[in-house]
Amino acid sequence: MFIKFQAFRICQLRSQGINNLSYEERIELWNLENEQFEELIIKPALSYYDRYFQRAPARTDGGLGWSNIWHRLQPDEAACPQLLRMSFAAFTTLCDTLQTNYGLQPTLNISIEESVAMFLRICGHNEVQRDVGLRFGRNQETVKRNFGEVLTATELLACDYIRTPKTQELHRIPERLQVDRRYWPYFSGFVGAMDGTHVCVKVKPELQGMYWNRHDNASLNIMAICDLNMLFTYIWNVAPGSCHDTAVLAMAQRSDSEFPLPPSEKYYVVDSGYPNKQGFLAPYRSSRNGVVRYHMSSFHSGPPPRNKKEMFNRCHASLRSIIERNFGVWKKKWRILSDFPRYSIQVQKRVVMATMGLHNFIKISNFSNADFAEVMMDTDINNTYGEPDLDDIEASEIADGEHMAQIRDNIADMLWENQRTR
C-alpha cells in the first residue's frame, strides 16, 4: 500500500511549486506520483478485471460436465427421470418447443439442452446454483443467467399449456366423468376440482407478517383448478399465505376478468373451506345435530356411510381428490417448491407458474411418467399426496347458496337411493 510518508512527501514538494524544485527533486516527485498512480488506480483496476471479467476455466474434473451427463441420458432410460425429472423424449421435445415457440436460444458455448437441464436440476432437485455449476462445469454467474432465460421461456410455455376454459367449453360434459360409474350421472354438473395449497417461500423480514400462515411459516396460498385428466386449468399464484381460501377465491374473481366461472347448473367441487354457492359445490358440514364425516380416512377406518349426507360426502371427497393428487404430483416432482432458495418473491411466484406449466406439458405430451401413473392408480386418496385441508372452519353461506344446497340434496338423494336398491 502507498504509505502515508510518501503521500506527505508529494504534498511537500508540490507546495514549493514545480519551478522552484531542483532537478533531483523533480525526478523524486515524478517517481512518487507514478507509484501513487499505480497503487491507487492501476492495481484496483486489475483486481476488478480479474474478479469480474477474467472467468475461471470450467470445472470438468471428477466426471462432471454437460458432455458426460448428456452421454448418460441417452442409453439409460432411468437416468433422465432421475436427473431431470422427466423422460428423455419429454426432455428433448421440451428443448425443441422452448427454442421454436418461446424464444430460447443457444450461445456459442452452451446448448439449449444444457441450459434447460441446469434449470430442471434447480427446480427438480432444489440444487443451489453453485452445486449446479460444479455438476455442469460452469461458473455460478453462467448458471444464474441461464436459469433466468429458461424461466422466462418456460413461463411463456405455461401461459399456453395452462389453458383456462371458455364458458362454451364449460358446458361440455367431461368424457372421463361419463365413463366413471362412481360419479355419473350423479355429478353431471362437474367441470373441475378447485382447492388451495401452500408453497413455502422466503421473504424479507418486513413482509413476513403478510405471508405468515397457520403453520408458522411464510408461504404463498396457491389456488388452482384441475380437470379429471390431471391438468391444471387455472391458477392464482399471487395470494400471500395469511389469506384464507375464501379470500383468495374472492381476490381471483375480483381481479381476474378471465376467471372461469361455471355457467348455471355447472360447478367445481370444493372442500369445506369454501362456501356452497353458485358454481361451487361443497360437502355437508357437521352441525349441532350430529357429526357428518367427510374425509376419506374416516370412511376407510370406520363404518360405511350412515346416511345420505355421508354418502354424498364420501363420493364428493373421492371426486375432489383429483386436485389433491395433482398438487401431490406437482410438489413431488419439483422439489424447489418445498424449500425455495433465496430468490425474490417475484421469482418464486414465477417458478410456481413455470413448474405448473411443465406439469401440464408432460401430461399433454403423453410421455410416460411414473409420478402420474402412481397416483392415477389410487383414486380414493387418503391425504397421501395432497396436504390435509387447511380450512375446516365454517364458511358463511351467501344468498345463492340455496340453489347449490338444492343441487347437493338432489345428488345425495340419488346416491342414497342407488345404495339402498343394490
Structure description:
The protein is of the alpha/beta class and 422 residues long. The protein has 3 domains: 4-52; 61-161; 167-420, no CATH class. The protein contains 17 helices and 5 strands. It has helices spanning 4-15, 23-52, 66-73, 79-84, 88-102, 112-125, 129-136, 140-161, 167-170, 175-178, 208-211, 245-255, 296-300, 308-333, 345-364, 370-376, 401-420; strands at residues 190-200, 219-226, 232-236, 267-269, 280-281. A 5-stranded mixed sheet has the order 3-2-1-4-5, with helices on both faces. The chain is elongated and about 120 Å long.
Give a count of the beta strands, DSSP E runs of length 2 or more: 5
Order of helices and strands: HHHHHHHHHHEHEEHEEHHHHH
Reading side by side through the largest sheet, how are the strands ordered?
A: 3-2-1-4-5
Please mark out the parts with pLDDT under 50 across 5 or more consecutive residues, or reply none.
381-396
Into which percent range does the helicity of residues fall? 40-55%
Radius of gyration in whole Å, from Cα? 30 Å
Largest sheet: 5 strands, mixed
Number of domains: 3
Query: What is the overall shape?
Result: elongated
Gap between N and C termini, in Å? 94 Å
InterPro entries: aa-tRNA-synth_II/BPL/LPL, DUF8040, HARBI1-like, HARBI1_dom
Keywords: Hydrolase, Metal-binding, Nuclease, Nucleus
Cofactor: a divalent metal cation
Protein name: Protein ALP1-like
